[in-house]
Write a structure and sequence with these properties.
Order of helices and strands of chain C: EEHHHHH
Number of strands of chain A: 0
CATH architecture of the largest domain in chain A: Up-down Bundle
Number of helices of chain A: 11
CATH class of chain C: Mainly Alpha
Number of domains of chain A: 2
Oligomer: heterotrimer
Low-confidence stretches of chain A: none
Order of helices and strands of chain A: HHHHHHHHHHH
Bound molecules: iron/sulfur cluster
Chains: A mainly alpha (306), B mainly alpha (531), C mainly alpha (105)
Shape of chain A: elongated
Low-confidence stretches of chain C: none
Helix content of chain A: 55-70%
Number of helices of chain C: 5
Structural class of chain A: mainly alpha
């Protein structure tokens, strides 16, 4: 059992990282596209009202100040606020928010467990009465993230399930996988909650388990914790098959599409990329397109009078 | 209605009833205030694929034989497959895949859509409906997922000609205003999906509204303008404009044409010459007064800024964009400046930016910041008192949300229109006039009624709300729409509802207001009887 | 595309009633379209406008801008709508056998 648990854990972590990396690489390797930005563009000077550099006469002669950090912070903030949902659909937000917080915290919980385990290897005791401040901080941080994630996550899962079933707009587009996901996440959170509340109120088992993982001295954990660990691991394997990548691609989408206002300058790097793309052959078959010719060759002969 | 009903044969997938429509404010707040939308004749229904909502933007003839029908289905699938490849669609592949893959169907984008809301929330107009259909087809017919996985991912759909014919029309029930995209927290763009669906039909199957393709881009490339204006007709119209300018202002102005080495090549939507020559005249008057070194072109395509390709076909788009650049290059101008045309703004500055390389990448800008500079810095003498009537600004989506030109037009209006008031929402959050993505020029059969009653409805509501306190027909009011397409749509919308007669609301461009305020012109430049 | 009989000959018209072969146009055809456009019987003023449009079209292959038409015929917009309830483009141009206006007009 202990070996199984350890292998499953290693596997699921490696699996999700590999899958996400592959997906991200695929996304990033797509060719540069035509501009299709949408304002406000956060790195622009006049982002408050959605202004762009096109508001200036001879815009190409002015030096542009792009504030990438602002865009980044905006996106980051939205992870923790989900403001659009709050504004547009409060009833949904009340469940979606705890659900998301559940995820953010459960991930933080695992990261903390990992570093906590590292700390333990270095001899720090993690408990409420630890000699070391670090130990105390770890103790409470792990406890807090764990418990809060179990509670909010379970609440959100049930809420979203109900919402998907009864909200006319959501129901129409809901799929069996949606329902499955909510039930699945509910089980994960509730199993964590169960293990904490009934079996292991200090969550020491998780810390020991993680210490085992990094020192390769695998240990046995109780039924409750084991169930939770297995479910969570399976969830990690399941995630790449859902739309969960949106946590990451949201950044890509905003930075590479919605806010991509990079002008093409003569002799620039972008221009070289574009020239290569224009040299690809197309195979569209409508009559006005020359199938088998490149993009560049599609254009009709110039018909200047002079 | 279920999503998959789109492939079930029936006379019409939906029928919009007058009582479904979003209510309008005074004086259109009575049940009989809405004119009845024209229905297609039985004969038209027999000849064209009209089973979506009984409205025709494209008007695809019904396939005569089973074989033709099957060929069309095959072509649709091959087109869809090409849409997902780098070689054939590098232009939009990344945005397309992003939008196909990361929508979580939270539906918070729905209520941002003016078409969906105005129609009384018809399922088929929901911003997420089209993408859902497309995703299901891809999962089932291109990715060939197993039955189980189709069931789990809810991808059941039957691809048949009924679906395809309806989807084609449906891609022309979205104005590509991208308001839905703006609120999506995940960066998904349902408007883009409509655009891409249109491309399958045009680039693979040769299906597009006649106004956009045959008498649009094709005619523009052939005779010089989608209006049909030839270089010869242009010459005649320009001398007419010079006469008019003299008559109206007493100024003798020679409109420069094909002036080599001018600083600015001014590109107008040629529709202005035909329908609103006062706009192009105002430009000439202002540029002359400010001493700007500019020119028009009389080369083929060089006198028509439009590029309808931006709405339905990347190739037609590229051909026209290149042509514009070639004209400017041959004239050796320093830059191209685009007049009051929203889609030409976006087409030339934003979309064409990654098609024009080398010496064809000629600097291109909007004329509006330049005009703002003239007005704000008092480079022409203006008297705001001459524009002393209630006035509001309609923002063309292409200028605001899609390219961030928001303030210059406001700076002008704030300076020269004492009674300027904003409509809500405005700027990057604006609503489309209802004529976007080619709708305003689609004049055939009953489509014009649809775009007044449905896609233009929210705009009408906004305008009426903005002017509620001065709604009486005794008070003349002005909607400033710095875009030819928007003007065409607003004209038709206002005619449909007799807005001028009932409320005395006039529409026009931005430069007309500047010319109207010029102190050295005696008579008012704006002629209200030309509504 | 549909076919209909105008001025005694079979003509192709588009969905909005514009004839497809402008060179086949003659007075009889014009009068038949005028009947459909509630512009019948055609008076001298009707013909003045129609002939003006026709001449302009033959010269420039396009309809004139509305303002030009008003100026050069001396008929104001109101009058034009009285004569041609369909308006200058959808009424008068159709009767004069011009193609349907296209582009952003
Ligand atoms: S497009 Fe965006 S806002 Fe709309 S349903 Fe999909 S994820 Fe939600
Ligand atoms: S782009 Fe505009 S019209 Fe199209 S679905 Fe989105 S909001 Fe509606």
């Amino acid at each position: 059992m202990r070996i199984f648990l350890a292998i499953l854990t290693y596997f699921s972590y490696i699996f999700i990282i590999a899958m996400y990396t592959i997906k991200a690489a695929k996304y990033l390797k797509l060719p540069v596209h035509l501009r299709w930005e949408l304002y406000p563009v956060m790195h622009e000077e006049n982002y408050q009202y959605g202004g762009s550099y096109f508001e200036q006469v001879d815009w190409w002669t002015r030096i542009r100040q792009k504030r990438y950090l602002r865009g980044f912070l905006f996106l980051l903030k939205e992870y923790f606020v989900l403001g659009e949902y709050f504004q547009k659909h409060k009833a949904y937000w009340y469940f979606l928010y705890p659900w998301h917080i559940g995820f953010i915290l459960i991930i933080t919980f695992h990261i903390l467990c990992f570093f906590g385990a590292v700390a333990m290897v270095f001899g720090i005791t993690i408990s409420s009465s630890s000699q070391s401040i670090t130990g105390i901080v770890f103790y409470y941080a792990i406890l807090f993230t764990g418990v809060v994630s179990f509670v909010t996550g379970a609440f959100g899962s049930v809420g979203l399930l109900i919402k998907r079933i009864y909200d006319e707009n959501l129901k129409q587009y809901a799929t069996p996988l949606h329902y499955f996901t909510y039930i699945f996440t509910f089980l994960i959170f509730i199993s964590g909650f169960y293990a904490w509340y009934f079996i292991d109120p200090t969550l020491s088992e998780y810390r020991e388990f993680w210490k085992g993982l990094i020192t390769f001295k695998f240990i046995d954990v109780g039924c409750g914790a084991a169930t939770h660990i297995i479910l969570f691991n399976l969830f990690l394997v399941y995630l790449p098959y859902t739309r969960s990548m949106h946590y990451i691609t949201r950044f890509f989408g905003f930075c590479l599409i919605r806010w991509d206002d990079e002008p093409n300058m003569r002799g620039g790097k972008l221009e070289r990329k574009l020239q290569a793309l224009l040299n690809q052959k197309v195979s569209w078959s409508a009559a006005h397109i020359k199938s088998g010719k490149t993009w560049g060759e599609q254009v009709e002969e110039p018909k200047m009078r002079s | 209605m279920k999503i998959e009903d789109i492939s079930k044969k029936s006379e019409q997938l939906i029928t919009i009833k007058p009582e479904d429509l979003m209510p309008l404010p005074y004086p259109y707040d009575t049940p009989d205030a809405d004119p009845a939308m024209r229905e297609l004749t039985q004969d038209q229904k027999n000849r064209y694929e009209a089973s979506l909502d009984g409205v025709l933007a494209i008007g695809i003839p019904k396939p005569e034989t089973k074989e033709i029908e099957e060929e069309l289905i095959r072509k649709f699938l091959s087109g869809l497959a090409k849409l997902l490849t780098k070689e054939n669609n590098w232009t939009f592949l990344q945005p397309l895949l992003h939008s196909l893959e990361y929508c979580v169907k939270c539906q918070i984008c729905n209520d941002s859509c003016p078409v969906y809301v105005a129609s009384g929330k018809q399922e088929i107009y929901r911003p997420t409906y089209r993408p859902e259909i497309l995703r299901r087809i891809i999962n089932k017919y291109l990715k060939k997922q197993s039955t189980l996985s189709l069931k789990l991912t809810g991808s059941d759909i039957e691809l048949n000609w009924t679906l395809i014919a309806r989807l084609a029309e449906l891609s022309y029930r979205c104005t590509l205003c991208r308001r839905c995209a703006q609120v999506c927290p995940l960066g998904v763009d349902n408007g883009l999906i409509s655009h891409e669906i249109r491309k399958i039909f045009s680039q693979e199957m040769g299906i597009a509204p006649k106004e956009l393709h045959e008498s649009g881009t094709v005619q523009q490339l052939k005779v010089g303008s989608s209006t049909g204006i030839t270089p010869k007709a242009l010459g005649n119209i320009i001398s007419f404009m010079e006469d008019e300018i003299e008559e109206k202002t007493g100024k003798k102005i020679k409109i420069p044409v094909d002036k080599e080495g001018a600083d600015i090549l001014l590109l107008h939507n040629a529709g202005e010459f035909m329908a609103w020559p006062e706009n192009t005249e105002a430009f000439a008057i202002i540029f002359e007064a400010a001493g700007i070194n500019w020119t028009l072109s009389s080369e083929l395509v060089g006198y028509d800024a439009v590029n309808y390709g931006v709405w339905y076909d990347d190739f037609q788009f590229a051909k026209i964009a290149l042509r514009h650049a070639e004209v400017a290059k041959a004239l050796k101008v320093k830059k191209i400046s685009v007049g009051e045309c929203g889609h030409a703004h976006k087409a030339m500055m934003v979309i064409a930016d990654r098609i024009l390389t080398g010496d064809l990448n000629i600097p291109r800008e909007s004329a509006i910041p330049l005009l703002a500079d003239l007005v704000i810095n008092n480079k022409i003498k203006l008297d705001p008192g001459r524009n002393n009537f209630p006035i509001t600004l309609h923002d063309p989506c292409n200028m605001v949300r899609l390219m961030g030109i928001v303030e210059p037009q406001r700076q002008i209006l704030r300076k020269i229109c004492p009674q300027f008031r904003e409509m809500e929402p405005h700027g990057v959050d604006n609503y489309c006039c209802g004529g976007g993505s080619g709708f305003a020029i689609i004049q055939s059969m009953n489509f014009p009624d649809w775009r007044s009653a449905i896609s233009g409805r929210v705009k009408l509501k906004q305008v009426l709300e903005t002017f509620q306190d001065v709604i009486s027909p005794d008070i003349p009011k002005y909607v400033c729409a710095p875009c030819s397409n928007c003007k065409g749509q607003i004209r038709d919308l206002f005619n449909y509802y007799s807005v001028f007669e009932k409320c005395n609301i006039f529409y026009g461009g931005l430069v007309e207001l500047i010319a109207n305020a010029m102190v050295d012109i005696e008579k008012p430049f704006i002629e209200w009887e030309w509504h | 595309m549909a076919k209909t009989t105008l001025g005694g000959i079979e003509m192709e018209i588009d969905e909005d009633g514009f004839i497809q072969e402008p060179d086949k146009w003659n007075k009889e055809i014009a009068e038949d379209i005028a009947k459909l456009e509630s512009a019948y019987p055609m008076t001298e003023e009707h013909w003045k406008l129609v002939n003006y449009l026709r001449d302009y079209f033959l010269k420039y292959e396009i309809a004139p801008p509305i303002r030009m038409l008003v100026k050069q015929t001396g008929l104001d917009l109101k009058k034009i709508y009285q004569l041609f309830p369909g308006g200058p483009a959808k009424g008068a141009c159709k009767i004069a056998g011009l193609p349907k206006p296209t582009g952003c007009v």
